[in-house]
Design goal:
8-stranded mixed beta sheet; 9 helices; single chain; alpha/beta; disordered N terminus; globular
């Protein structure tokens, strides 16, 4: 993935960074990552780190790329080939410690940043969040001590536009602390692209156990959590529910739509882990099993999904996920569901799913 220095002209001027690498003038001008067109298509993106050896690590897209030192300076750099239309989370690894990019204002939590190629579609309503910014949290929270699931967890609730149908955000802590979903939903509502809804941020304690195709989580949501939401005082309509899930969360949301149709009839699913079947996660190649996994086998039974609205999205660079998702999309539609299908400019990465989350929740509500 790494390129040499040939062809970049006077140091990094081609990337819009003037001055001699390592000088104060150079560091004052840095605003990376910066991309230029590659000769054979796609992009070459420059990543810079100051002071010590580092490796740039990407989330679910590329192998890690060690940075090279520019002469005897404190400038370490990597020129990374990227395909067209890519948004990706990354971080710098220095002495086994992860760091956000200090030259990039777009962050995801305190130790991650987000890069996007110039042709990646915009993500309106999602503000840039620096590594030192503290995201706002919903005022309403409930302590859920679940008899069915065991343990306690904090569930936060935020009414958007005065509140309305419940939007259950699986992996809720990621949407609270890494990506500012509360702010983004509010902005989308103000812009007329989101109806009034009530966000319920549901954290996971054990994703692999809770999001596997089993009834425990959804019985607990139905019998324990939603009554607590109704009693919380937050304006909400638990009888109109949208479930939004990504990866294993997307798998779980679709499982619920199949097995709990009276509870879940609207789903926004990003990159659902439809490769899953019992024991697959323990295999050397979890994605190498039957296409569509256990969910496709259930869909082949042609359950009546005529009451389901489901929006499917998957990263266009998730080449091994695509067959599993495509089969599930097809079988869901054949079973009578109203289906929307899209592809995000990303790999298996929450930074790429953010726009689809807003758009598809609004669509699911009709």
């Amino acid at each position: 993935m790494r390129l040499g220095t040939a062809g970049i002209g006077n140091a990094f001027v081609a990337f819009g960074v003037p001055g001699a690498p390592g000088t104060d003038a150079f560091w004052d001008a840095v605003g990376t990552p910066a991309s230029i067109p590659a000769a054979d298509g796609g992009w070459v993106t420059l990543f810079l780190w100051r002071g010590s050896p580092a490796t740039v690590v990407f989330e679910s897209w590329s192998e890690p790329v060690p940075l090279r030192r520019w002469g005897e300076t404190d400038c370490w750099y990597a020129e990374v080939r990227m395909p067209a239309r890519l948004r990706v989370t990354y971080q710098f690894l220095v002495d086994d410690e992860a760091h956000a990019d200090p030259f990039n204002p777009a962050g995801a939590g305190g130790d991650r940043s987000i890069a996007a190629t110039p042709d990646a579609p915009a993500q309106p309503h999602w503000p840039a969040v620096g590594d030192t910014d503290v995201l706002p949290l919903p005022r309403t929270r409930i302590r859920w001590s679940s008899e069915r699931l065991g343990g306690r967890r904090t569930v936060r609730i935020h009414p958007v536009g005065g509140g309305g149908p419940v939007v259950l955000l699986l992996d809720g802590d990621d949407w609270l602390y890494l990506h500012p979903a509360m702010t983004a939903f509010d902005a989308a509502h103000t812009g007329g692209e989101m109806p009034a809804v009530t966000l319920v941020f549901l954290p996971a304690k054990d994703r692999e156990a809770e999001f596997a195709c089993g009834p425990g989580l959804w019985e607990a949501i139905r019998d324990e959590l939603l009554p607590l939401v109704a009693e919380s005082g937050a304006p909400a309509d638990p009888d109109r529910l949208v479930v939004a899930g990504q990866s294993l969360g997307g798998l779980s949301a679709m499982y619920a739509a199949l097995e709990f149709p009276d509870l879940v009839s609207r789903v926004a699913c990003q990159s659902g882990s439809f490769w899953w079947s019992p024991g697959a996660a323990d295999l050397p190649d979890p994605l190498g099993g039957p296409v569509g996994g256990a969910l496709a086998a259930r869909l082949r039974e042609r359950p009546d999904l005529s009451g389901l609205r489901v929006a499917f999205d998957v990263g266009e660079h998730e080449t091994r996920m695509l067959p599993h998702c495509e089969l599930t999309e097809t079988l869901a539609e054949r079973a009578g569901a109203t289906v929307r299908v899209s592809r995000s400019a990303s790999g298996h990465d929450r930074a790429g799913w953010r726009h689809a989350l807003l758009r598809d929740v609004a669509w699911a509500l009709g």
